[in-house]
């Protein structure tokens, strides 16, 4: 009996491996830098950095100055 059960198990294992060997996974997307040259990437980085600098200058010191006030109450420094 043991050889027959072992044979059935081996056959089932073989079928499962055969099914999985025929399945395909989707391909990985190519990295972004491989599609463009390094010079183009550097130009885009410089343009982005300049845009961020312009936006920060347009906002002025609005990013660092807080207009919030303390909430008062029995312990104003609690939070």
Task: Describe the protein.
The chain is mainly alpha-helical and 79 residues long. It has a domain of 25 residues. 59% of the residues lie in helices and 0% in strands. The chain starts with a helix and ends in a 20-residue tail after the last helix. The model has no long low-confidence stretch (mean pLDDT 76).
Question: Which tags fit this structure?
Answer:
79 residues, mainly alpha, 3 helices, 59% helix, 0% strand
Q: Layout of SSEs?
A:
Elements: H1 2-22, H2 32-35, H3 38-59
Region (Disordered): 58-79
Keywords: Signal
Signal peptide: 1-25
Give the overall shape, derived from the CA principal axes.
elongated
Instruction: Return residue spans where pLDDT drops below 50 for at least 5 consecutive residues.
Output: none
Percent helix, as a range, is: 55-70%
Largest sheet: none
The number of E-state strands comes to 0
**Total helical segments:** 3
What is the C-alpha radius of gyration, as a whole number of Å? Answer: 32 Å
Q: How do the helices and strands follow one another from N- to C-terminus?
A: HHH
Strand content range: under 5%
Keywords: Signal
